[in-house]
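Hello again,

I reread your note about wanting to compare the complex against the isolated chains. To keep things tidy I'm splitting this into two emails, and this first one only covers the full assembly. Below are the input lines as submitted, including protein chains and any nucleic acid or small-molecule components. They are followed by the predicted structure of everything together. The single-chain runs will come separately.
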Amino acid sequence: MITTAIPVKYIFKRLIIFVSVFFGALTLNFVLPRLMPGNPAEVIYQDLIKASGGTINTAYLHQLEAEYGISTGKPIYVQYLIYLNDLFHGNLGVSISFYPEPVSAILIQALPWTLFLVISAVTISFFIGNRLGRYAGINRNTGKDLAIDLFSMFMAAFPAFVLAFILLDIFSVYGKVFPIGGAYSSSITMGFNLPFIFSTAYHAVLPVATIILTSLGGWVLGMRNNIIPNVNSDYISFSRNLGMKDYQIKSIAYRNALLPNLTGFSMSIGLSVSGVIIEESIFSYPGVGMYMITAINNLDYPLLQGIFLMVIIAVLVGNLIVDILLGFLDPRIKQEGE
Amino acid sequence: MGLKGSKSIGILLKIFKPIGMLLQNNKSKAGFMLLLSIVVFAIVGIFYTPFPPNAYLFKNSLPPSYSHLLGTTGYGQDVFSQLIGGAAPTLMIGFSVGILGTLISVFVGVLSGFASKAVNEVINAIVNVFLVIPGVLLIMLFGAYFLGIHQNLGYFPTILILVVTGWAFGARTFRSVTLSVAKRDYILSSILIGEKRLSIIFRQIIKSIMPVIVSNFFFTAMYGTMGLTFVEYLGVGNLQQVNWGTMLYWAINNEAYLVGEWWWILPPAILISVLMFAFILLNFGMDEIANPALRVFKVKKEKVKS
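Full-complex prediction:
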């Protein structure tokens, strides 16, 4: 009994969550700098005074404060409204470490590369991980199962950036199989042509492989633990008695185990984004992660806040898409939602 | 007094029964042994290190030898002393994040399991905010501000950041577990008898979800250890202190991997992964204990075969 109706109530609920999380993140981004003793503008101002020996105009402090949107004179709700207004006009301030580049210009260059890495890593690791988990769960309590479990647990336990270093060392520094850095070869012009696409894929192999290896574990173990009760359940023995073939039974159990595993997608997106951001500076990949390290080292708060917001918006949109797809795939949600 | 004392010990034993259960499962047993050996290593490190871990006493970048079991760093510190001296802070952070994060998530999860629908929705929204935001972004944001304060607060900021980013997953688990337990008939009968809500929560709910709590503790402790390496790698932690995270940071920042100084980068990397592996094994084994569908019944298996 397949109904094609759209689960309106469910989608509506997801949209509410989307908006609430979005405003939660916006507010956190607004509140945090104001909670700290001495706002960031003052901190940087004090640093500059220390560095230069005390010859900086106080007007600079006010300029800094204006750039952060911190106006100590105005009441807090006015500041919040100014902050929101700036944001919706795409005004994220001016970067300190890449002065006078506006933060939004940096992000427009960097974000697509990060998204490209995250999307390819999440999808590939989803497919490989679930297949491995299915294999382990069906061959439960055998040597194969144990080997797969231990491997995925150990990979999940391995710090992603150390793995990145090891892979870089083996394949780029000594092996010279893959490039040491960059997103595409500098001799190729950017555009929609075959050499560029090949070059991009070639440069993405190591970063994507690192994330796949470290994020595989969640899918493998989740799938294994979901498929075991399914394989042992009554409907499977019933289908077996009906004379269904072995591979048919396996694929039914797999599909039923896949749905609950899909809810792990939002966690997986978050973890992969964390992993990608951490490793980008190692592979000198021109995504937001590389700028983030620079921003932290220079206490470049406008850039940090811009990265924070943009990545969260991307993650939220990704989650929303997955959730809505799930609403169409999962009959239980459909029933609730109609 | 004595009688009362023995009674409370009995209750404690009952509550912590799941820890004894850890040894029933092969995976968690292996994890327990690994964790125990790291704990012993750390305790030794508190009282004895061959050389002061943070002193620049020797030649730079010496390879491993009898006098320096794991060589020296690019700054002339003894790597083995750093490794053994840094074990205790690393474990301390993992355990503190595990304990604090689990306490918060049990509180929030059980509360939302019993709260009214409106409160429940609000809690759910907050949990979702923290679940969806990639942890590394919050680490970066909080860390940068703590860095901006320019005050030596020891490990406090690190632990705070990791607890803030690490509690939400457990809260979601506890919420759904509490909801399913709270619907059972025996809870209803306790409510009808007139048992106080607080007593029901502690005497029945917490007790019955204890295996899940223990499993979640190990998961959060693993997150804490991994998070420590993130915090230190990003440079927003306290880089003057010796722990396995800062060891990795300095080794990587001096490009030890490019010049072939493997003895500087590999030992902390391996020990951190072993520690996290131990936590994952414990978490996974505890899941198998808590979830009867995954339990292995050896007797049954033999019957089927014969």
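For quick reference: The two ends of chain B are 57 Å apart (CA to CA).

B.
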